[in-house]
Task: inverse folding
């Protein structure tokens, strides 16, 4: 059922190969979004770890 709902939502929005996940609550979904954004910003995060990678706030330093 979950797969069908995501296929339907993606077709309405216009995504060809969309994907998604249902979360149990807002806090969990926000934490997942932050984790995915961080991984998208730095794909080597799994290799370098949090302390070996560039700090996220350094993006905003002038």
Result:
């Amino acid at each position: 059922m979950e797969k069908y709902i995501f296929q339907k939502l993606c077709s309405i929005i216009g995504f060809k190969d969309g994907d998604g996940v249902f979360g149990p609550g807002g806090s969990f979904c926000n934490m997942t979004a932050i984790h995915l954004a961080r991984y998208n910003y730095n794909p080597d995060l799994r290799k370098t770890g949090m302390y070996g990678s560039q700090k996220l706030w350094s993006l905003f330093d002038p």
